[in-house]
Amino acid sequence: MRYALTLVAWTPATAGVAAIASVAVFPLAGPNGGWLPRPVEPFVPALAWVTVIAVPSWAARWVWRRTRSRERAAAR
Fold first, then answer.
1. What digits encode the pLDDT tens for the residues 23-50?
2. Predicted pLDDT of residue 16
3. DSSP 11
4. HSE on the CB side for 32, CA within 13 Å?
5. I need a labelling partner for 25 at 20 to 30 A (CA). Which of 38, 43, 53, 63 fits?
6. Which of 26, 12, 25 is nearest to 55 (CA)?
7. What does the alpha-carbon distance between residue 36 and residue 53 come to, in Å, rounded to a whole number?
8. Long-range contact list for 29-37, CB < 8 A, 24+ apart?
């Protein structure tokens, strides 16, 4: 049950963050960008990928830890 709840938290978090990151990255660092200075543009996609990986992982970790404490309480 713990794995299923964690997957249920991770999936929409990943979809939402990926959508927001892609909408933000295309105008900033895409081929028609130009809003940022040239030296900064290569870092924008890298930061977007870090965000797409980190934020859903934090959500999944939170659910994982919450379900463990509830399982312990139920076992008592």
1. 887 777 766 667 778 788 788 888 888 8
2. 94
3. H
4. 3
5. 63
6. 12
7. 23
8. none
Backbone angles phi and psi of 42, in degrees to 5: -65, -25
Mean pLDDT rounded to a whole number for the chain: 84
Q: How many CA atoms lie within 13 A of 69 on its CB side?
A: 5
Whether 31 and 45 have beta carbons less than 8 Å apart is answered as no
Structural tokens at position 46: 């890298």
Q: Of 66, 75, 74, which is closest to residue 8 (Cα–Cα)?
A: 66
**Global confidence as pTM:** 0.69
Element (H, E) at 72: helix 43-75
Name the DSSP class of 14. Answer: H
Whole-angstrom distance between the N-terminal and C-terminal Cα of the chain? 18
Q: Which residue has the higher pLDDT, 73 or 60?
A: 60
